[in-house]
């Protein structure tokens, strides 16, 4: 478990994310823990959740699907 201050976190978020891939990162404000940063895999293990269809659809590089033209989504004009 890594503990960093909020100032250090704000100055180098990328470093905190790199550490969080390996272990949770506790962010403190004035010496008191306020947040925990962890990888999504660690969160899923902890919560018992698996990937959902939304997670899979949000994946970068996922094939884009063409939707119907927007005019088909419009509400009909009131009469």
Automatic annotation (TrEMBL):
Which domain of life does the protein's organism represent?
A: Bacteria
**What SUPFAM superfamilies does the annotation carry?**
YefM-like
Q: Name one Pfam family in it.
A: PhdYeFM_antitox
InterPro entries tied to this protein: Antitoxin_Phd/YefM, YefM-like_sf
Annotated function: Antitoxin component of a type II toxin-antitoxin (TA) system.
What protein family does this chain belong to? Belongs to the phD/YefM antitoxin family.
* Name of the protein described by the UniProt record: Antitoxin
Q: Which organism does this sequence originate in?
A: Sphingomonas psychrotolerans
């Amino acid at each position: 478990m890594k503990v960093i201050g909020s100032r250090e976190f704000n100055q180098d978020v990328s470093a905190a994310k790199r550490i969080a891939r390996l272990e949770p990162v506790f962010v403190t404000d004035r010496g008191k823990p306020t947040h925990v940063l962890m990888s999504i895999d660690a969160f899923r293990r902890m919560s018992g959740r698996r990937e959902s269809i939304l997670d899979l659809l949000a994946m970068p590089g996922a094939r884009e699907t063409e939707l119907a033209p927007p005019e088909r989504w419009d509400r009909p004009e009131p009469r």
